[in-house]
Amino acid sequence: MRADLFPAPPVPRVPFAGRDQDFPVHRIYCVGRNFADHAKEMGAPVERGTPVIFMKPADAVHLHPRLPFPSGTRDLHHEVEMVVALGRDADGPLAPGQGLGLVCGYGIGLDLTRRDLQAIAKDKRLPWDVSKGFDASAPVSALRHVDDIGHPAPDTALWLEINGERRQASTLGEMIFGVDDVLVHLSTLFRLRAGDLVFMGTPAGVAALQPGDRYRAVLEGIADLGGEVV
User: Fold this and answer.
1) Cα separations (Å) of 30 from 12, 17, 42, 143, 215?
2) What is the largest CA-CA distance in the chain?
3) Is residue 6 part of a domain?
4) What pTM was estimated for this model as a whole?
5) Neighbours of 122 (CB within 10 A)
6) Where are the beta strands (DSSP E) in the chain?
7) Is residue 204 in some structural domain?
8) pLDDT of the chain along its 230 residues, tens only?
9) Domain that includes residue 63, residue range
10) Any alpha helices (H) in the chain, and if so which ranges?
11) CATH (domain of 168)
12) Closest CA to 225 of 39, 79, 87
């Protein structure tokens, strides 16, 4: 009988608010340039096209209010995003309109970015992995189950404050690609599974975080995430 060489690490889990249940994380997908104002501030063209997708490892999820400043960077940026949690597998590519049927919950999170490393990668036409997929690069709130809250309306606000100052703010209706659009597209590229998280993109106002900064991210009426960079 074969045995593991060492104990397998635990599966990352995100709690559901108001329920005695956790969400075991399978993968983290992220959508880039999904708000026109953010695409413009990053010098990228604003076009419908297809969603820009990148990934973070599942164990990039961070639940503790003390957020460690990562190594290897002098320019850590915040990007506030709605987080979508999938509670069902997709049986192959989805047809338009089928994506929301996979969703079991919503939350708010930060897509943390080592912006200086990303700039180097962009300049050399290299992958973004080290700028996006580092340890604790995906702080996320407790999730709210869709059975408890339904699906967020287009006028639902998301915003981020740093040290009490509003840095980012928008509504979900400003996303270029909605949840169904993104899930349909992802299903043509990957086998979507229960346990997948999707970070849906960020509005304008991304900026640097420093040790000692306190942050609060809110998806109004749904989720709240706060902490301090240490």
Assistant:
1) 17, 23, 16, 17, 21
2) 58
3) no
4) 0.94
5) 14
6) 13-15, 22-24, 28-32, 52-56, 61-62, 66-67, 76-77, 80-86, 103-110, 113-114, 138-139, 144-145, 157-162, 165-171, 197-199, 208-209, 214-219, 223-229
7) yes
8) 899 999 999 999 999 999 999 999 999 999 998 987 655 655 556 566 789 999 999 999 999 999 999 999 999 999 999 999 999 999 899 999 999 999 999 999 999 999 999 999 999 999 989 999 999 999 999 999 999 999 999 999 999 999 999 999 999 999 999 999 999 999 999 999 999 999 999 999 999 999 999 999 999 999 999 999 99
9) 13-229
10) 36-41, 115-123, 129-132, 146-149, 179-187
11) 3.90.850.10
12) 79
Tokens of 184: 């349909």
Q: Which two tokens stand for residue 119?
A: 């700039």
Both tokens of 57, joined, read 């490892």
**Number of residues assigned to the chain:** 230
